[in-house]
Amino acid sequence: MRKKTGVRFPEDSNPSVVPRQFKSAAAPLEISVFSVSQPRWTTKLVEEEVCREDIIRLCPKDTWNSNLAVLECLEGRKEETDITDACSHLLWNYKYNLTTDPKFESVAVEVCKTTITEIKECAEEERGKGYLVSCLVDHRGNITEYQCHQYITKMTTIIFSDYRLIRGFMDKCRDDINALHCGSINAGEKDIHSQGEVISCLEKGLVKEAEKQDRRHMIKQDCKKAIMRVAELSSDDFHLDRFLYFCCREDRERFCENTQAGGGRVYKCLFNHKFEEAMSQKCRDALTTRQKLIAQDYKVSYSLAKACKMDLRKYRCNVDNNLPAPGRLVSHTYCCVWSQLCTEVAL
Predict the structure, then answer these.
(1) Domain around 150
(2) Same domain, yes or no, for 142 and 75?
(3) DSSP state of 320
(4) Which residues contact 340 (CB under 8 A, 6 or more apart)?
């Protein structure tokens, strides 16, 4: 059997970080990232003056030569004191340019040729604006090409680290973010909400609305769909639900240390330990919110959606996806309960 080789990403050959105007700590941080030029592909993050000290202090030396490895290292740092404002801003610009730069899109075209032809929606995406990579992230569960899956998995981690990088999310939810006071939406502005708190705030607003606890602001339908879609896309890997990940890191180590990540297994393990006395309240609350989202749309539970997939086909549960989420849950679950496996997983 041939040994599978890894994808050689543009960043492995010294990718750029951000435009020249962000090259020093003294650079004006208020400049919008949406007006910057395309990045240069010559600098490693560890060589950037404003980030060098943080990276050397926080990341293992064997990650320094790979910008993606450095990003993965720094994504696990939640405390604002861990990373300086200047470095945080530079990282945001790097990630934004990373998701929109044609060079990274060209890598996707090269390593995902078969996948792109198989997924019509992605094949029809306009090139050069980052839409292709975002589309492949949306459909990553259907990717069978090894190198393509490897590449898109890396890009998924980056995109889900900040709600502003998720395609179309800010446009659809901008008004609701402001109305619910969920946090800043100014591009490039550093705030603690950029790591998942904004989405968590919107999810809580959606839950309160469904439970009729708060009728002062009704979340727009497009934003509701975007919130549920993000919850669905993060259902297989709890690392992608940034708010829950940070709330439950210690609980995961305490209760689910030997549980392999992926396939929704960590979620399921944490759900099983939700009422343990040693479970932290912040993790319990985050799990409760996610369970209430599952009550609105079964697809937010990876294990439930997977277990019920064949039953939905068998009993022809082709429910219109345009129905409100609660309607989809009831209609799908009615068919699904015929399977003992589904009813067990649903608990």
Answers:
(1) 102-159
(2) no
(3) -
(4) none
